[in-house]
Amino acid sequence: MKKLKKALYILALLFPVTLFAQKEIVIEPANITMEVGQKKQITAYVMENGKKLKDPINLLSRARRSLSIDSTMMAHAIQPGTYDIVAVADGVRKNFQIKVNYPAIASIKIDDIPQKIYAGTSIALKYHVIDKSGATRDNVDVQFSSMYGNIAEVDDFGMVNTLIPGKATITVKAENITNTITVNVVSNPIVKIQLEAEMNTARTGDVFHFKAKALDKNGKIVEDAPIFYSFSGVSDNTSQSASGLIKNDGRFVADEAGRYTVTASCGVASASKTLKITPREVTRKIEMVGQGSVNDKHTSDFWVWEGIDGRDYAVTGTWGADGTAYFWDVTDPSNISKIDSVQVDARTVNDVKISEDGKICVISREGASDRKNGLVIIDVSNPRDVEIISRFDENMTGGVHNVFISGDYLYALSGGQKYYIIDIKDPKNPRAVSKFELDTPGHSIHDVWVEDGIAYSSNWADGIQLVDVGNGIAGGSPENPKQFASYAYPNKANHASFPFRSPSTGKFYVIGGDEIFPYGLNTGKGGVNMAGGYLHVVDFTDLENPQEVARFEVPYAGSHNYWIEGETLYVAFYNGGVRVVDLSGELMGDLRKQGREIAWIIPNDANGYTANAPFTWGAQLHKGHVFFSDWNSGLWSAKLEPEKPKNTPIKVK
Asked: How far is the CA of 594 from the CAs of 154, 555, 582, 583, 632, in angstroms?
């Protein structure tokens, strides 16, 4: 070891530069801190052997919707936080961070303070901490205190517990900002609670609607009584805890079969009801039927349709390859056969759609050699001999990731920021007639789906956007799209949105799906991937007050594209395969825990582009078969066994 160290030392003396010198990227200033809304010029250059080189450098923000950096190295701080930046030059890269400070607190708003609170009851303070940028903050330390604690006291989480009649003051503090309110505690007239429900037995996943009435000593209803709901339970499965979800409007749903007790209380008065919950029992078998193999490149989205000749066909795109789209005959789902293809100037044909009359196909283009990305419109009247009719590139330089056809119009994403609405009455001469784009900082979009004259777009951090493009609900049209409702969920990963009007309840839901790759995405041949994220069920029945009410999540897998037929959901969960889900009845809580998963199937292909690495992209029901595409293995078909008749007696021989 001593001889080796001596040899290295001599080499270092003889060849100090050639042995140890290397390129490095220098960032100035070294520590970058910004304020929201600020722009700051960043200087970056390459050093080698003590000399400053003129090598070009690219700076890439890993959170461009929160901190963007343009081609001149000008950073724009959009949202507070600490963000990772990558500097890349020839043969060298450097990772560094930019911190965007949170603005100081400007005010604390306390809403909906009751004029009176009955002694012995509790209320949760509804407060919002607002910073100087106008944003609502939930990451600050909030402190609560009360004066006259013998009348009312407040805990560390803003729950006010009242004790005796009188007036007490409650103070809320964040940083150096405070807000003080007075609560008026009065004598509690409530002596009895009446509790009613429409049923006392149900299946897991069925939603109960409890109604509680608070009565005074004369039997009169106390209308403003603050009713608190809770539940306890014992599961039929001795190794499983009873679980469920209860809301303070009296809605309750159970996840596990067993016995549950729901309690409504107001101060010392309470009432309870016991429920018997049975298993949902909706599971069915699903079997693989056929495959159209693609094993030399990644497969992207697909569409299945009935051709004008009465036979059934499919089109699939390709990802990160050579711009090919394949056409298939799927009339016999057990014998899927490739019948034609087109190749366009693109690396990725991410999305494919077919017109309602089965005559027109549109495919998206990304990564064109001339940077003129856009759409290609194809005549598929004869799917065995398809013909390109036209292409549309105007305003599409940044690439088209997703498209949709509705009637005589195409809806095409442009550069990940907006969608254009394109008139294709004459498919040889498509023309843009309007566009829809948000004006929020760092806005972006991933998908658009159109149904009944409403465009549902998925706008990542800005969430689900509902736009009237001919429905009439907001006076919109394809030439004049008008947004009328939206909902953004906290993880800011809204990737797809699909409307669902429940036939059994009349409720109007939109199901929003995440797309998250917590471990990154390995796009090369042989790459194995895992995704994250889940489906968010948002109740849009009240368009002015949409509420997230349920979820469907598969552990260690992530949602992608999906399809709803009747009250059944068919959803691709990437490495978790295709999942079939029961959407019947009112939706609330954790749908998978409730036993609403009907079936699941995972495509394994030893001859796939990456062998035995299922990564399903989307699912579609067509004439009783479940078709789905897989990133590593092509197009598949499966068959779900018919639904079991209800209450069929079992015959014993």
From this structure: 36, 15, 10, 11, 32
User: In this structure, are residues 372 and 364 in contact, taking their beta carbons and an 8 Å threshold?
Assistant: no
Q: pLDDT tens digits, residue range 342-352? A: 999 999 999 99
Distance (Å, whole) CA 448 – CA 176 = 45
- All residues at 6 or more sequence positions from 99 whose CB lies less than 8 Å from its CB, including other chains: 32, 33, 34, 81, 82, 83
Question: What predicted TM-score, i.e. pTM, was given to this entire model?
Answer: 0.88
pLDDT at position 646 is: 65
- Phi, then psi, of 4 in degrees rounded to 5: -65, -45
Q: Which two tokens stand for residue 632?
A: 């590593």
pLDDT digits (tens, 9 = 90+) for 439-470: 987 789 999 999 999 999 999 999 999 999 99
- What region does 462 belong to: left with phi over 0, alpha with psi -120 to 50, or beta? alpha
Strand, coil or helix: what is 14?
helix
Q: Quick one: which H or E segment has residue 32? A: strand 32-35
Residue 388 dihedral angles phi and psi, to the nearest 5°: -70, 125
Q: Is residue 546 within 8 Å of residue 487, measured between CB atoms?
A: yes
User: What CA dihedral angle connects 98, 104, 105 and 106, to 10 degrees?
Assistant: -130
The structure tokens listed for 282 are 């909706």
Radius of gyration of the chain (CA): 30
